[in-house]
Specification:
Glyas_Fos-R_dOase_dom; VOC_core; 2,3-Dihydroxybiphenyl 1,2-Dioxygenase, domain 1; Glyas_Bleomycin-R_OHBP_Dase; Glyoxalase; 4-stranded mixed β-sheet; 8 strands
């Protein structure tokens, strides 16, 4: 077997509309509807499917819950601008710009939380 990429992941959320507003308005993702009215967030060639807590689509994670994810999202936006855009939306970053290591090299990252408390790392390769 040879895994080549991540196609999508699933977030269990308390309020799908609130999550859609955050990820589209703050992070610039695109809301899409698929299947029988399911909602997802599209960015690049990936998507985040949203499951409503208590009404998860089967099969689902054994311990599906809100606020349990830790995601690193890549951007081509300078981290200083990421911080400014977060501030403009009234979102307090958990950190300034910090050096980290991504899958293929050095990155600069900014950390924040989404409406469910998931940890988001917004990163740019340097």
């Amino acid at each position: 077997m040879n895994i080549t990429a991540l196609d999508h992941l699933v977030l269990t959320v308390a309020d799908i509309e609130k999550s859609i507003a955050f990820y589209t308005q703050v992070l610039g993702m695109q809301e899409i509807t698929f299947g029988e009215g399911r909602k997802a967030l599209l960015f690049g060639r990936q998507k985040i499917n949203l499951h409503q807590r208590g009404a998860e689509v089967l099969p689902n994670a054994q311990n599906a819950g809100c606020g349990t994810a830790d995601l690193c999202l890549l951007t081509d936006t300078p981290p200083e601008q990421v911080l400014a855009e977060l501030e403009a939306h009234g979102i307090r970053a958990l950190s300034g710009i910090v050096p980290r290591t991504g899958a293929v090299g050095a990155i600069e990252s900014v950390y924040l939380r989404d409406p469910d408390g998931n940890l988001l790392e917004i990163s740019r390769y340097i």
